């Protein structure tokens, strides 16, 4: 049996770890709160943009703009959102596993795909496996603003416009609520879902200045960029939620461990006392 | 007098929501003024200052990468960034301006050139809005 002192040391160190995980949980909880607010303040922009886009796209021709048209897919891009730091439970591993599997299934050679990655963990993962990375961004703040990733989204959409890539998929953790997040992959480019909302067509007709086509030219890239930004905000909320859950269960585990160890400690102490008494009694009996 | 309900929205949240009597802005096809009872309209805006006017008061907002949408006396300005004069970081804008000018002088490949040009436009626009408030 471990000595009293050994057990005492383990209890103290577990208590210290618990303090840290507990603090991290609370930090993540407040960051999650903020991330949720950010996601909420993005909604008016994205909704309005979507409304205008579907309105114009519906009244325009199917092939009014290259971003609406399916072309033969020679190169697929994956936009993968991970975090910079670990300790977030299955947040990163889930997403990387999914992307890795998708790529293994669909592509024979690295020439057929490219990866755009957000976050240090994802970047290191793909680098280690020598997979092609077209673009990356690391060190993003916990509460990103649009200007932080504007360059990245612009360049990504530009890749599609320049026909470097023929398809853009985005893979990220979707935030359901504080305890459930889900890895999802969505096709962003070519834009396919803009024709779905047909009910807007009946609305009042707009006058377009200068013309529908030219508006699409500037509107669609912005729309695609906003979709990417929306996914990023969603992913940030998931990251904080995931980290919060991971830290909570770490704290719970520490508590359990401390209970077990305290029990062991008390037993060992009791055993030592009993032994001491029996030694004294034995000694006294021997003297008689 | 009739008024327009104006809201300026960016990806980082709504910047401003209030009623005004006139909106004037710079669209890609030229200067554009919107008064109440305007027909529904959508137009892309260039990097510029949007002027929102009401009795004895003009609010200027620096915007970049934006659209104006008018319908039913509601004006929505969607922009990738929008700032009121009080929210503009003058120091940052000045630095951005210097940086962009340096890059433009250096003349590297096309993409950098275009980006520097945009950055310069944005910085000049911000400084302009701050000075004229």
Q: How would you summarize what this structure contains?
A:
Helices cover 60% and strands 14% of the residues of chain A.
In words, what does this structure look like?
The complex is a heterodimer of chains A (288) and B (133). Chain A is α/β, with parallel strands linked by helices and 288 residues long. In chain A, 60% of the residues lie in helices and 14% in strands. Chain A has helices at 4-59, 91-106, 120-128, 146-161, 212-287, and strands spanning 76-81, 113-118, 133-137, 167-177, 180-189, 207-208. A five-stranded mixed β-sheet of chain A has the order 3-2-1-4-5, with helices on both faces. By secondary structure, chain B is an alpha+beta fold. Chain B contains two helices and eight strands. In chain B, strands 1, 2, 3, 4, 5, 6, 7 and 8 form an eight-stranded mixed β-sheet that branches. Chain B is elongated, with a radius of gyration of 16 Å. The model of chain B has no long low-confidence stretch (mean pLDDT 85). The chains are: A alpha/beta (288), B alpha+beta (133). Strand 6 (207-208) of chain A pairs parallel with strand 5 of chain B, so a sheet runs across the interface.
Element order, helices and strands of chain A? HEHEHEHEEEH
The oligomeric status of these chains comes to heterodimer
Largest sheet of chain A: 5 strands, mixed
**Average pLDDT over all residues of chain A:** 86
CA-based shape of chain B: elongated
**How much helical structure, as a percent, in the residues of chain B?**
25-40%
Tell me the distance between the termini of chain A: 34 Å
Order of helices and strands of chain B: EEEEEEEEHH
Radius of gyration of chain A: 28 Å
- Uncertain spans of chain B, ≥5 residues at pLDDT below 50? none
Number of helices of chain A: 5
The overall strand count of chain A is: 6
Q: How much is the average pLDDT of chain B?
A: 85
Q: From the helix content, strand content and strand pairing of chain A, which structural class follows?
A: alpha/beta
In which order are the strands of the major sheet of chain A placed?
3-2-1-4-5
Structural class of the helices, strands and pairings of chain B?
alpha+beta
The count of strands of chain B amounts to 8
Portion in beta strands of chain B: over 45%
Please give the share of residues in helix of chain A: 55-70%
